[in-house]
Amino acid sequence: QVQLVESGGGSVESGGSLRLSCAASGLTYSRYCLGWFRQAPGQEREGIAAVDDDGRTYYADSVKGRFTMSRDNAKNTLYLQMNSLKAEDTGMYYCAADPAGGLRILQYEYRYWGQGTQVTVSS
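RE: above sequence
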């Protein structure tokens, strides 16, 4: 059974930093495309970062240069380092995984999802 568990969310002031983690179990981690999504109140879930099994990455323009994603295949853990946080980064953050090859950035392309972790940035 595949399980993804996010952690590291919280409340921070604008300009601050947080690091999210996503611990995975029940899958061959290194072969999966992994992604981070966020959903602000009243808005659709959007893909903000992804990394495929070949190490290719994607970042949404809204986070490029501020967020850095990394994966530790030995620990089956995905990270999202978020710096220079802004109020508009507020939302629920989800990690997702899919076994199909290639870089995936759309919500419907992912098979497995975590429960999410809340990030709140105050201005």
